[in-house]
Amino acid sequence: MNPLHVELGDRSYPIYIESGIINDSALYKKHIKGRNVLIVADENTSAHYLPALLTALSDFNCQHLSLPAGEAHKNLDTTSLIYDTLMKGRFDRNCTLIALGGGVVGDICGFAAATYQRGVNFLQVPTTLLAQVDSSVGGKTGVNHPLGKNMIGAFHQPSCVIADMATLQTLPDRELKSGLAEVIKYGLIDDAEFFHWITENINDLLTLDPQKLAHTVTTCCANKARIVAADERESGKRALLNLGHTFGHAIETANGYGVWLHGEAISAGMCLAAKFSALAGHMPAEAVTTIEKTLSAAGLPIRPPQDMTSEQCHELMYRDKKVRDNLLTLVLLNNIGDAFLSNDFDQKLLKESLRKEFDTK
Amino acid sequence: MNPLHVELGDRSYPIYIESGIINDSALYKKHIKGRNVLIVADENTSAHYLPALLTALSDFNCQHLSLPAGEAHKNLDTTSLIYDTLMKGRFDRNCTLIALGGGVVGDICGFAAATYQRGVNFLQVPTTLLAQVDSSVGGKTGVNHPLGKNMIGAFHQPSCVIADMATLQTLPDRELKSGLAEVIKYGLIDDAEFFHWITENINDLLTLDPQKLAHTVTTCCANKARIVAADERESGKRALLNLGHTFGHAIETANGYGVWLHGEAISAGMCLAAKFSALAGHMPAEAVTTIEKTLSAAGLPIRPPQDMTSEQCHELMYRDKKVRDNLLTLVLLNNIGDAFLSNDFDQKLLKESLRKEFDTK
């Protein structure tokens, strides 16, 4: 199978999507620079994939580091564990990091690669649906600050993405569903046809149909590659990929990182975006119902956490990276498959919309 | 006076070198983005310049943060103080950081600017000779790891450099001398005429002759701007600016950060580079004597620390960022004003040279 490509001039790179490629030595050899390799995985992923990968990379000086799993550990302290391992192992600027696992590991490992010796080579080997369809592609790396998601980070593109479809077969159910939130997001943004395909095939996806999962990952990555190539640093269109994320990040921060999975928060966040879009007259109310039905069918939450208030949500949203001089840019919907950016929405109406969702449970 | 320019396409920026410009509101207005400004200074610099600068910036929402002074605090923990202030103050991506002070503050503040919300605007306002002639120009930002200098960082160019010559008039003597080490470095690399001019004028520089200091800063910045424009990411010629730095960083790390000032370590480091260059037959022995005389006249150390061994130095040098697959690139000298890069030097001879300097005191 031919890889997809993210076209970014001299920072272009391939996305390999296939079953059984996680231990393909030839693929790694093509993209590893230097002799020294550090594999960074979370504790769960290590157990599954590390031994075979170490064998596949036996031609290199290969070390590995297991990080504590989960969003709660996506911080500077965990990043320092990577720096320490690199320094103690005398890794020079010509080394390669491999991020093996889900989105959390990819984000931390990518940030370490962006900042170790002012930038070293790294590969993304995503093993969750969420990481395969979204976070491993596009070069956004970073960690959380106690007061806000992904507030410390850098743009740093990997030299390739190796998405082995077979890894999804052992994915815990909750992780699979969390990934489906980002999948549905791509449909909502600008691909109504894909949204309806997901809706029709949601049960096959939930039971891990290999062909349909492969189609899903390929479609999402093709969408993401196209959007990132057009706007690497998010000065415009790329911001559409944040649909549901300003609401969702507020939920993740308010809940405590890791209490809800990222995709769960994004699911509830997309519902909030959809409802506000309807309240503001952009989208028909029926579309909100359709969106909620699909997310529910995927086993995802469509309501925000019980113990969160609209004020808390509003306060956290205005700390988001999409705020400029106190002006928040939201991703709203005209319809399914037709998202747009707005910073001139009615602020009172936003508060009203949040009150309805948060304070009247 | 017309500013110098660092020519880097859409990341080009001016270097203003003049007396009395540190509180020039118009200059700041030209380069500040957004409404929110955080001035980051060290404790010493704050006392001198902060009140007047806050007045000059009264049109902005201006906050300030004082960091503990000195190289020992150039680490991730101190960087986190900046992140915390930015998050608590709800600084968005459209904010501006101002690094006010010496090289340490510039490096930390620049790194925070490179990584806060994946990169925000920042200005360099260097108030030491070392920062004015070297560290504020060129976009190298970063902090130390306990096992190595500047190992965590990013390339992130400022939007301007404001070098007020008047600030040098209150510079502590030891800081002035430390800056002269970097000044002499520019002469040694590729400007023999400038080296001889410094040698002849060293006493005037030590007594803070304003015209001669201005000539010094302008010459160094012009040299640096030219080299950085030709090789922003240090894939070639820019590495010449590291003359004495691989040896010097080893001294700083071995001594404990801050025990010797950066310029002091670089002075001893340049002597080590010069002696090895002579031992390897590249440079006449008389040139080593000339270099040592000038550095001594500037009040700088020309011998490494008493309690450091050659083995310790060698070990730390091979952890340097200039190592690739265990191959170290050194900056050596054919003569005063004629530096070159070498990675095929005689490794045994390097050890012999270090033994002579470190182990036979």
CATH level 1 name of the largest domain in chain A: Mainly Alpha
Question: Looking at the chains present, what oligomeric state does this protein adopt?
Answer: homodimer
Helix proportion of chain A: 40-55%
Q: Overall 3D geometry of chain A?
A: globular
Named at the architecture level, the CATH assignment of the largest domain in chain A is Up-down Bundle
Going across the biggest sheet of chain A, name each strand in turn.
4-3-5-6
Strand portion of chain A: 15-25%
Write the layout of secondary structure elements.
The structure is a homodimer of 361-residue chains.
Chain A: E1 4-6, E2 13-18, H1 25-31, E3 36-42, H2 43-56, E4 61-67, H3 76-88, E5 96-101, H4 103-115, E6 121-126, H5 129-135, E7 140-145, E8 148-155, E9 161-164, H6 173-190, H7 192-206, H8 210-230, H9 245-255, H10 262-279, H11 285-297, H12 310-317, E10 323-324, E11 327-328, E12 330-335, E13 338-342, H13 347-358
Parallel strand pairs in A: 2-9, 3-4, 3-5, 5-6
Antiparallel strand pairs in A: 1-2, 7-8, 10-11, 12-13
Give descriptors for this structure.
alpha/beta; Dehydroquinate synthase-like, alpha domain; three-stranded mixed β-sheet; Rossmann fold; 361 residues; four-stranded parallel β-sheet; homodimer
Could you describe the 3D structure shown?
Two copies of one chain form a homodimer. Chain A is of the alpha/beta class. Chain A has two domains: 4-170, Rossmann fold; 173-358, Dehydroquinate synthase-like - alpha domain (Dehydroquinate synthase-like, alpha domain). Helix content of chain A is 47%, strand content 19%. Chain A has 13 helices and 13 strands. The first copy, chain A, has helices at 25-31, 43-56, 76-88, 103-115, 129-135, 173-190, 192-206, 210-230, 245-255, 262-279, 285-297, 310-317, 347-358, and strands at 4-6, 13-18, 36-42, 61-67, 96-101, 121-126, 140-145, 148-155, 161-164, 323-324, 327-328, 330-335, 338-342. In chain A, strands 4-3-5-6 form a four-stranded parallel β-sheet, sandwiched between helices. Chain A has a three-stranded mixed β-sheet with strand order 1-2-9, covered by helices on one side. In chain A, β10 (323-324) and β11 (327-328) form a beta hairpin. In chain A, α9 crosses α12. The longest helix of chain A is centred in the middle third of the chain and has 21 residues, at 210-230. The model of chain A has no long low-confidence stretch (mean pLDDT 95).
